[in-house]
Amino acid sequence: MFVQVIEGPVSDPQQAKTLLDRWVTELGPTADGWLGSTAGVTDDGTFVALARFESEEAARRNSDRPEQGEWWAQMAEVFTSEPEFHDSTEVDVDDHGDLDSAGFVQVMQGRTSDPQRARELMNDDNPEWQTYRPDVLGSLSAVHDGDAWTMAIYFSSEDEARAGEQKEPPESIRKAMAEVDSLTVGDTSYFDLKDPWLVSPS
């Protein structure tokens, strides 16, 4: 799988959503290898999107289409500064439910001193997770730019996610979380998508 992460401040969240909806309707059906997208705008106006493709080659073929270039020219005008792009082929998806039904998505970004170990820990399929956090429908994680990572966690609702944050984790999960923290370099950024735009090919 290939994932492209796009982020940046936008002037009009509704215009950004309208353009994304138009891409899904007009360009999505003929986008080779497109698997789906997660997007939204945070309360402070930061647009975040994760577009999933079967392969990097498929994503490049989509980018090379004239109609894609025309669409992006309109989308680029919504950003108030140059957006950032992060590409990854080191992608892991863990789904316990329908990710597209999530009512709240939290996207996290950070850097790690050991990308391979961090990837293993973030994708640990510990069965205790589902008992500890039934509000989590699943996650998508991507390692990019050498030592950086982006992870989207899909929740049934924001209220249930906030309640889950207050729960004490089991010992095995607490140890794994502590090891992830020990590998973290610098600060971790959090992007809360309270109205996530979740789409997949029909």
Characterization of this structure:
With 202 residues, this protein is α+β, with helices and mostly antiparallel strands. 34% of the residues lie in helices and 37% in strands. The protein contains seven helices and ten strands. The chain has a five-stranded antiparallel beta sheet with strand order 4-1-3-2-10. Strands 5-7-8-6-9 form a five-stranded antiparallel beta sheet. Helix 1 (13-27) packs antiparallel against helix 3 and helix 4 (115-122) runs antiparallel to helix 7 (171-183). The protein starts with a strand and ends with a strand. The model has no long low-confidence stretch (mean pLDDT 94).
Q: Look at the structure and give the CATH class of the largest domain.
A: Alpha Beta
β content, as a range? 35-45%
C-alpha Rg (nearest Å): 17 Å
Overall geometric form = globular
> Terminal Cα separation, in Å?
19 Å
Instruction: Give the CATH architecture of the largest domain.
Output: 2-Layer Sandwich
Number of helices: 7
Helix percent band: 25-40%
Top keywords for this entry?
10 strands, 202 residues, five-stranded antiparallel β-sheet, alpha+beta, Alpha-Beta Plaits, 2 domains
Set down the secondary structure blueprint.
Blueprint: E1 2-9, H1 13-27, E2 34-41, E3 46-53, H2 56-63, H3 66-76, E4 84-88, E5 90-95, E6 104-112, H4 115-122, H5 128-132, E7 136-144, E8 148-155, H6 158-165, H7 171-183, E9 184-193, E10 197-199
Antiparallel strand pairs: 1-3, 1-4, 2-3, 2-10, 5-7, 6-8, 6-9, 7-8
Helix pairs in contact: 1-3, 4-7
